[in-house]
Design goal:
Helix content is 2%, strand content 57%. With 167 residues, the protein is mainly β. Strands 1, 2, 3, 4, 5, 6, 7, 8, 9, 10, 11 and 12 form a 12-stranded mixed beta sheet that branches. A hairpin with a 2-residue loop joins strand 5 and strand 6. The two termini are 26 Å apart.
Length: 167
């Protein structure tokens, strides 16, 4: 990771393209799912994933749902850096009622092992705005991370930030 500071923050935000529309998530009321929050995605859509690092890191690899995704560096200064990538849901099928899926995300930064996280998602038909665009508007997901001996990167805390919510 560089330097003596082993802690860093990865912020992931998602926007629906081409108009950078918001993504919605909902808090699950029951314990039948693995995670408490579900991110809602349309089938047959393209999403822009923005990944930023504080302090700056060199992103070597981004994999979403097991697929290597091309990334473009958007910003870099002494305090942070940001990358963008595009993910298509063209082959996704709508999730059955009361069913959630996992969307694994792997991030590799220079000098570290893979950092793995997973979003709990539900896919909706491309015209099902009533259900897919209901819930809280998701601003970003913050991953407070650390690297330890052997360069193993781990997520210590995961925070979902809503649009318009106080930090």
């Amino acid at each position: 990771m560089g330097g003596s500071d082993n802690y860093f923050r990865v912020t992931v935000s998602l926007k629906k393209e081409p108009n950078t529309g918001p993504i919605y998530c909902k808090m699950e009321k029951s314990n039948k799912y693995r995670q408490k929050k579900t991110v809602k995605l349309f089938c047959d859509a393209v999403y822009r994933f923005d990944v930023s690092f504080k302090p700056p890191q060199q992103l070597q690899l981004l994999s979403i749902d097991g697929k290597l995704i091309e990334v473009t560096e958007q910003l870099r200064d002494g305090t942070a850096c940001a990358y963008s990538a595009y993910y298509s849901t063209n082959n996704a099928q709508p999730s059955p009622k009361s069913h959630r899926q996992e969307l694994p995300i792997t991030i590799r930064v220079l000098g570290s092992e893979d950092l793995k996280t997973c979003l709990q998602i539900k896919y909706y038909k491309s015209d099902d705005h009533k259900h897919c665009e209901w819930g809280s508007k998701l601003h970003c997901i913050e991953l407070d991370c650390s690297s330890f001996e052997g360069n193993l990167a781990t997520v210590n805390k995961e925070t979902y930030r809503k649009i318009g919510a106080e930090p």
